[in-house]
Amino acid sequence: MEPSHCKPFPEQTVLITGASRGIGAAIACRFASVGMNVVIHYLNSHEGANETARSCMKLGSRVLTVTADLRSREQIERMQEKLAQHDLVPDILVNNAGISHYGLFSDLEEAQWDEIMDINLKGAFLMTRQFMPAMIRQKYGRIINVSSIWGISGASCEVAYSTAKGGINAFTKALAKELAPSGVTVNAVAPGAVDTLMMAGFDEREKEMIENDIPVGRFGKPDEIASLVYFLALPESGYITGQIISPNGGWLT
């Protein structure tokens, strides 16, 4: 049953980080399909964000694009101020922004490690800390973190990325317990191999080998990940919290 203090689902506001392409763009469009207010965050991909915004507006959604470096608390604060100017307060936060790195751990530079941790893990921390208080005040909210299968099982040649996503999973579980009394759920979606630009580091032979290892015989689609994120955001999903759900085609069970 939907809480009385909760706005009707289509009237809520969702903020998605890293929504200029791939999974983030698919998530934005999924929420836009019900007419929800959609805030599209991006860093440098201005045209990509605008393209996502146009797709969302065609679906009848009110859309705002915002740019910020998620490693900067000051830029995130300015982002929140811009939302407030448009009378938008996120009821749903999707921490999707992230970068990967493929290569031997012995070749990994300290600066690369720091960048991966800052964008994937610190960014989620700063965003959540900034937008969580409003959810607590209204006794309702959804925080959904986009993790990775590698945060569960680890991956050779992706040590830093696996570490960051493992941190996201622990962050999700711990924060879910802290926020449960406030009516705010915290969950993570940990996709397997999804057909996005993040797979660009693999050649065709490597991609074929990965596909052969996946029981369903193919990569996931961004829309399939978006559907799970959408489900976790529903008011009727309020009893699901602290979970790491991995849509991976049976690759990891």
From TrEMBL:
Keyword DNA damage: no
Keyword Protease: no
Pfam families, sorted: adh_short_C2
Keywords assigned by UniProt, alphabetized: Elongation factor, Protein biosynthesis
PANTHER family for the chain: 3-OXOACYL-(ACYL-CARRIER-PROTEIN) REDUCTASE, 3-OXOACYL-[ACYL-CARRIER-PROTEIN] REDUCTASE FABG
Similarity field: Belongs to the short-chain dehydrogenases/reductases (SDR) family.
Name recorded for this polypeptide: Elongation factor P 5-aminopentanone reductase
UniProt gene name: ymfI
